[in-house]
Design goal:
The structure holds two protein chains of two kinds.
Chain A lengths: L1 E9 L4 H14 L3 E6 L3 H4 L2 E9 L13 E4 L2 H7 L8 E5 L13 E5 L1 H7 L6 H13 L4 H11 L8 H13 L1
Parallel strand pairs in A: 1-4, 4-5, 5-6
Antiparallel strand pairs in A: 1-3, 2-3
Helix pairs in contact in A: 1-6, 4-5, 5-7, 6-7
Chain B lengths: L3 E5 H11 L4 E4 L6 H10 L6 E4 L3 H13 L4 E5 L1 H6 L1 H9 L4 E7 L15 H5 L10 E3 L4 H18 L2 E7 H5 L1 E5 L34 H21 L3 E4 L6 E4 L3 H15 L4 E6 L1 E3 L3 H7 L5 E6 L5 H9 L5 E5 L8 H14 L3
Parallel strand pairs in B: 2-3, 2-4, 4-5, 5-7, 6-7, 10-11, 10-13, 13-14
Antiparallel strand pairs in B: 1-8, 6-12, 9-11
Helix pairs in contact in B: 1-2, 1-7, 3-5, 10-13, 11-12
The chains are: A alpha/beta, B alpha/beta.
Chain lengths: 176, 355
């Protein structure tokens, strides 16, 4: 199995870190992974995205031109990447922030008001985790337990008390 | 081997350098390689090393001259415009036979250009961006495990031959994360560096490190000595990966991250029963010309794919030596060719040559 994922949105939404935790979790499951961020002034302009590949085989190019999955956390990101998602792939949008429907018939679409739901669950900044939950449930690309380990490894200790809350949000996303 | 860690390419370079015994780093920030300096600033003092953010790239390369002259394992890093500024110092160091590692995480040019990945500095690196007859070893890793291993190797080659070694990556390689496994212990080439200017202790004649030789006979003799050394490096240090080249109809040449895209193309082509091979130079200098001599016997054509307007393709032409046609496909400005784009080019060439 190989999943090529693009996560995209505004800077500050945890786009890059969501991708990193996902890639790390894949590595913990002994899969081949890569993570490639947009970098430099492009990010300071407000948009951020990253490409993650999680694969049973060796990863070729880390650049993703034909994602199997897209998480879009704002309208410009959906506009930019909607067209290139592979037929049969999945598009997950944060409908709290994306002002339109997905215009593809040949992909699975989830429109989730993730920012609102994460906010209800206690922390609006976990919207990225909510959407990752849906991605994990739809693709089975990693186990939620690996994600938890990945958070433990990737977060500084002073944030570790947030992990149970983040896992709760992840599971909510999985069940949505 | 240690357990797998997920790291950014730039951080891998810095970590590998420290593991290789690099004690001095001098640099000036520039995207997309500033993480190297960030990592060095944090980690190098912890092992008793010295990190200096110089006031400019020119200062950094001259600090490298000084540290290397004092026998230290040392490194500087920058990206294309910054590497241009270092060229004078590079030429001086080559003449003075000072070993050091220079990292170029190439961005798109010319000029200040942009910050996205490119390979437009190939000529500068392998043909000598500075003045005079000199060469430096240029290593072009394609993944982060190789980036780690080649960085360690770069320090060894530098000391072994008293030469400059450049690690040439691009923005993708520097910014991406991939699992890396570090060894428990590095294989480090040990050299006394009896030539270093570290004080005589009144026990020996003083050493001289210089790049000025006013007497023509002396300078020609020094040039001959340098050329002999470069010939030895060219004989001993060629590194290349040949992938699926046996019986290939067409041989693609690509280095660094572009080679990874080509490997995807090879998979695509296999499904259509088209046999595509890849020669991936790992040393851009010395260039792995031998690999082409053999493949030119049976391949119908060669194609060089680069993030440039056509630079390495000249070395491919020299190596193929007119035996078979050599084609080129390149993108510039930070644009990256897609698998489909490269595959279409391959099909177009094979069609032109009659299947």
């Amino acid at each position: 199995m190989e999943q090529k994922i693009i996560i995209a949105g505004f800077g500050g939404q945890g786009i890059l870190s969501a991708g990193r935790f996902l890639a790390y979790a894949g590595m913990l499951e002994d899969k081949n992974v890569s993570w490639l961020p947009s970098y430099g002034p492009e990010m300071r302009g407000g948009t951020a995205n990253c490409c993650i590949i999680i694969s049973d085989e060796q990863v070729g190019s880390p650049i993703v031109n034909d994602p199997t999955a897209l998480i879009a956390m704002n309208t410009p990101s959906l506009d930019k990447f909607e067209k290139i998602v592979r037929p049969g792939g999945v598009i997950i949008v944060d409908s709290s922030l994306v002002g339109r429907q997905v215009n593809r018939e040949d992909v699975v679409t989830y429109a989730i008001p993730a920012t609102e739901l994460a906010s209800e669950a206690g922390n609006a900044t976990f919207a990225n985790i909510f959407l990752l939950g849906k991605l994990i449930a739809h693709t089975n690309i990693i186990k939620p337990e690996s994600f938890e380990l990945s958070l433990k490894h990737g977060l500084r200790e002073k944030y570790h008390h947030l992990i149970p809350e983040e896992m709760k949000v992840l599971r909510r996303g999985m069940e949505y | 081997m240690g357990k797998k860690v997920l790291m950014k390419g730039n951080e891998v370079i810095a970590e590998a350098a420290i593991r290789a015994g690099c004690t001095h780093y001098f640099g000036y920030p520039i995207t997309p390689q500033s993480d190297i300096a960030h990592y060095m600033a944090k980690q190098l003092p912890l092992v008793g090393g010295t990190f200096v953010q110089a006031e400019s790239e020119v200062a950094a390369i001259n600090m490298l001259y000084g540290a290397s002259g004092a026998g230290a394992r040392c490194m500087t890093s920058s990206s294309s415009p910054g590497i241009s500024l270092k060229q004078e110092g590079i030429s001086y160091m080559a003449c003075a036979e000072l070993p050091a590692v220079i990292v170029n995480i190439v961005r798109c040019g010319p000029g200040l250009g942009g910050i996205l990945p490119a390979q437009g500095d190939y000529f500068q690196a392998v043909k000598g961006g500075g003045h005079g007859d000199y060469k430096m070893v240029v290593l072009a890793p394609a993944n982060l495990q190789e980036l780690y291993e080649l960085t360690v190797e770069a320090f060894n080659i530098a000391d072994k031959y008293r030469t400059l070694v450049m690690i040439m990556g691009d923005g993708n390689l520097g910014q991406m994360m991939e699992p890396v496994q570090f060894k428990d212990q590095e294989d480090i080439y040990k050299d006394e560096k009896a030539w270093a200017t570290v004080g005589t202790g009144m026990k020996r004649k003083h050493n001289t490190i210089t790049s000025i030789y006013i007497e023509p006979e002396v300078l020609e003799a020094h040039n001959n000595k340098l050329q002999k050394k470069y010939a030895l490096i060219a004989e001993k240090e060629v590194r290349v990966e040949e992938f699926n080249t046996e019986n290939a109809d067409i041989i693609v040449t690509a280095y660094g991250t572009v080679a990874r895209i080509v490997k995807n193309v090879i998979k695509l082509a296999k499904k259509d029963n088209i046999n595509v091979g890849l020669i991936r130079p790992i040393t851009l200098w010395p260039f792995p010309s031998e690999a082409y001599v053999k493949c030119a016997e049976y391949a119908k054509a060669f194609l060089s794919v680069e993030l440039s307007a056509g630079q390495m393709v000249e070395d491919v032409r020299l190596a193929v030596n007119g035996k078979k046609p050599v084609y080129f496909h390149g993108r510039t400005g930070g644009m990256i060719p897609t698998e489909k784009e490269i595959y279409d080019k391959i099909k177009e060439i094979l069609e032109k040559l009659g299947g």
